[in-house]
Amino acid sequence: MIFRCPDAYFFVQGTSEGYMPLNAFDGALLASGIGNTNLVKMSSIVPPGAVRIEPVPIPYGALVPVAYASINSNIKGQTISAAVAAAFPSDPSMPGLIMEYSATGPSGEIENICRDMAVHGLMMRGLDVGRVESTSVSHQVNSVGAAFAAVVLWTKEAGT
User: Fold this and answer.
1) DSSP letter at 119?
2) Do 31 and 16 contact (CB within 8 A), yes or no?
3) How does the average pLDDT of the chain come out, rounded?
4) Is 43 noted as a catalytic residue in this protein?
5) pLDDT band at 3 (very low <50, low <70, confident <90, very high)
6) Catalytic-labelled residue, pool 16, 32, 44, 134
7) Half-sphere exposure of residue 109: CA atoms within 13 angstroms, side-chain side
8) 143 contacts 17 by C-beta, under 8 angstroms
9) pLDDT tens digit sequence for 98-137
10) Residue 130 φ then ψ, to 5°
11) φ, ψ at 116 (rounded to 5°)
12) Of residues 43, 54, 93, 157, which has the active-site annotation?
C-alpha cells in the first residue's frame, strides 16, 4: 500500500502571478507551502477520527493526498477565488466530506457556496451535520494569476 489511512488533515491556500498559467499555479502551490511535493488529487473523504492539525513541513518530493480547488486567469483586474470545505457528521464513527470550488468573485462568496456543497453532500449520505470547516483565498489578477486552496490528508506519525 502506497498510502496509510490518514489520521490528520490541514488546510492550505495560496495565490500567485506567473509567466504562464502553469507557472502561476506552481507559484500558488509554493505560497501554500506544498509546492515542492507531488500532489495526488483525491476524491473527498476524510477518514473517521481524523483530527485537524496545523500545516506541517512536508519532505521534498513526498506523495501528498490532497483535495483542492484552483483557478487561473489572464484577465487583468479580475478577482478569482478558490475554496475548500469539509463537513463532518455528528456521528464521529462516520467519515467527513470535502468539497472544492473555484470561480470568479470574492472569496467569501465562493467559500459559502463550497460550504453549502459540503453540507448537501453529507446530507446526501444520510448523515447529520456536526460541523463545517473551510478556507478560501482570492487574487486580483495583474497579468496571469492563480488561486489555490486545499485540504491535505496526513498521518501524524509522518510528522506533526
Assistant:
1) H
2) yes
3) 95
4) yes
5) low
6) 44
7) 8
8) yes
9) 999 999 999 999 999 999 999 999 999 999 999 999 999 9
10) -95, -45
11) -60, -40
12) 43
Cell digits for 107?
Answer: 472569496
Q: Enter the C-alpha cell of residue 29.
A: 502551490
Q: Is there a catalytic annotation at residue 17?
A: no
38 part of the active site: yes
Contact 91, 127 (CB under 8 A): yes
Q: Locate 84 and state its grid cell.
A: 475548500
Q: Determine whether 100 is an active site residue.
A: yes
Give the per-residue pLDDT at 4: 79
What residues form DSSP beta bridges with 154? 8
Alpha carbons 15 and 19: distance in angstroms, whole number: 14
Check residue 86 and report its DSSP letter. E
Per the document, the length of the chain is: 160
Instruction: Enter the C-alpha cell of residue 41.
Output: 488529487
In the chain, which ranges are E strands? 8-17, 38-41, 45-46, 51-52, 63-73, 79-89, 96-104, 129-140, 145-154
- Relative to beta strand 45-46, strand 96-104 is antiparallel
Q: Which domains does the chain have, with CATH numbers?
A: 8-158 (3.50.20.10)
